[in-house]
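@channel sequence for tomorrow's demo:
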Amino acid sequence: MDPEGQRFISNRDQQRLLHHLELGDAVSWFAEQRRTLRHRVALDRWHPAAAPDWLWSVGLPLLSLADQWQGERRLLGLSALPGCGKTTLGQWIEAAAEGLGLSIQVVSLDDFYFEADQLDAAMRGNPWGVPRALPGSHDLNLLKDCLRQWRQGQDVQMPCFDKARRDGRGDRSGWRRCDADLLILEGWFVGCTSVLSPELAEAHLESPLTPQELDWRKQLQPELSRYEDVWNSFDQLWQLRARNLNAPLIWKRQQEATLQAERGASLSNAELERFIRMILCSLPSSCFQNMRADVVVEVDPDRTLRRIHLPNAIQDSLSSDSLTG
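structure tokens (generated this afternoon):
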């Protein structure tokens, strides 16, 4: 990544974001990032082709929030569809935080999957044949207990999940200590809330929902509602929102090709097609498009960041100004 490369987030969007987060004016904030060389920290953790908006409009504002919240236990939700780039973002945040002496940890909702037998039982019979990922596949009691203890100032052991175990069906693989001031919980349906029945059959797909898919979509709504206590405990919720509902198809295929090239292992074509179909069919698109996040960043299919919306602030207006810093 070139921190001084072309950016697409407008001056107006950037300024409104910084004001919303109480981080000051853009001129002073940009000057401070450069003076302290924060914009150069852990650059090797980004993909070489990553656009600098990921740094200036997402990564560095999150670090600035952590600075602001030092000494307090704060929980931030990060929602993005698979393959968008949130894993890379999370790895950079942890590396940058370590380099700057900030107390931040990124935890995946995926790490709270049930153990093997209970996970298999929860996923049995789903029409997409996926072994995990759906609402209802997570140990919510364990997640809530961990978050409660962490909020109380305790050092907590949080689970780790290895997706490669059991021939790719996955299983729990140990525990990780969590004692950070700022905890970021990321996941593909983090922040999604249950919807009313008329929206359940809504789909924007070349192939309509099958009766089995629609039945499971209905079954998943009460499961999804059980997560809302966790979402309501967030101090802030950020969403990386796909501008095109078919973007996960592109992102996930690229992600699997990278895994195959780097590790010699990836989903088969049939498994990949079933997984992508699950992402597109299991929850109505309104769950993502109408999410009431504190910060919404629009992401193009090529992972370019285009707009920032603040649903709790004044309505955004279109701007074609490019950000020059």
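heads up for whoever presents: The chain has one domain: 11-309.
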